[in-house]
Request: fold
Amino acid sequence: MAYEQGVQRAQRRASELSVGVLRRAELIATQIDAAMAAASMDVDPATTCGIDDIARMLAVQSRYSHIGALARIAPATGLILCSTFGPEANGFALPLPDHVRRERSVRLSVRPVPAGADYFVIAQGDVAAFVHSGVASMFLPTIKDVSLGAFIKDGGPIVLHRGTPHLASLRRLEQTGASASFDGSRLLSLSASRTSDYIAFVDFPATWVRARIYDAAAWFIPLGAVLGLALSALLFLFLRNFTSLPAALRRALQTDRVYMEYQPIVDMRSGRCVGAEALVRWRRGGVLVPPDRFIGAAERSGLMPLVTRRVVQLVAADTAQFLRKHPEMHVSINFSALDLRSGLAVELLTKLLATTGLPARNYWLEVTETSFVREDMSQVINQIRALGVRVAIDDFGTGYANLDVLAGTKADLLKIDRQFVHAAVGHGQASEVALAIFGLARTLCLEMVAEGVETQAQAEFLIGCGVQYAQGWLFGRPNSVAALSQWLDETQRGVSEG
Ligand code: C2E
Ligand code: CA
Ligand code: CA
Reply:
């Protein structure tokens, strides 16, 4: 862009200049025409070069600033018969013409009086007009390294100029009929006259054009850099706002793309369903985003309170009727440690009980063991339990919480993490750890819920370890409340008797 702009700017300048030069050349041309016409008017051949004739030529010459002298010549030989130079020039033979066009000849650098100046001479018939080349060129602008001037159409010579123009290049451009060219080494601009034989030219060296390109680049490069930066910043913001997980989740929270599923929790000895865990789901573009992923992102981006509010709102709407139908059951809700710390958990549970009108035993709260590693949660846990809501420590065994802390925190249940359930029926060190975990729960005198029970063998082993409740694919996958309700109707009739 800088290149184009620079060349365009140089071309504009060149064409302005050449129009100026053309005006000067046309002025000279009109003066020559007028002077020659006046000099050849009504001349009686008998009185040619008489005193009146010379006086008349002097009067004509004085009217035109660019006409240095007028002369009568012998058309065949070019000999000066008489002139306004005075008798000194009489008998001077004009050199052979440099160019002839429409009966008019042009001669350059003619010096009829040895001590005088150089002229270019236009001759037609027996009249010759002398134009002082130096004086004519003086009216042209002087610009360093730039040559400009005018030449005669159709192969004629350069009649006035400043600098050292390259005639061959000018001719080539004239032949193409174009008015400007830039070949990388010089920029040429031509302006042809409509009223005279002259073509004005301007010849800029490449260095001059390059300077215009650099001028333009001085604007374009910082401008481009600023625009580039602004664009990348916009793109960055756009991508962050529209594709980042928290931003997309924030938008999804207001829609039914975020919803809850409920996984049955069963009493292992009786096989009876005692409740369900509420698990949040997010369908994004037809694909389920794993909660582990977006819950973590929500916690890091400060979106967690919004998620938890939405979860509790959905749970209230989904389960109120279900729990009225199954008053002995509960729904277990997952809260983040952040929700407990901020007081949001207490606030939302209080509201939940008020809006549903259900007794507190219908809801459990789950919070991960990791939450207890760094801080003492006993106060808020006590507040929640004071509401009548049971508290389960989730993912037990994975959080490495201090035993004293756990013992001091009066939770109601431990949810044994899936990895220990799976390891327990195996052999080796992992099963030892699993057994130790179950032992620990008994020591703390807490009820246990085993998570991720997938096989009958696991279930039997857990019963042997004194685990009361279980949750897992063996009993039921997470599903809608309607599906859970139907599943209960189909499978639970007579379970307790059985
Ligand atoms: P979690 O609280 O430990 O939830 C149990 C996870 O185990 C669920 O994964 C459940 O689908 C899965 N699961 C249940 N039975 C089986 C089984 O037999 N085998 C196997 N392999 N997996 C089983 P999900 O739904 O992907 O949830 C992952 C985690 O996301 C949850 O772990 C919980 O930490 C978090 N989460 C889910 N919903 C919520 C919520 O509403 N709020 C908060 N704060 N966290 C939630
Ligand atoms: Ca849980
Ligand atoms: Ca868990």
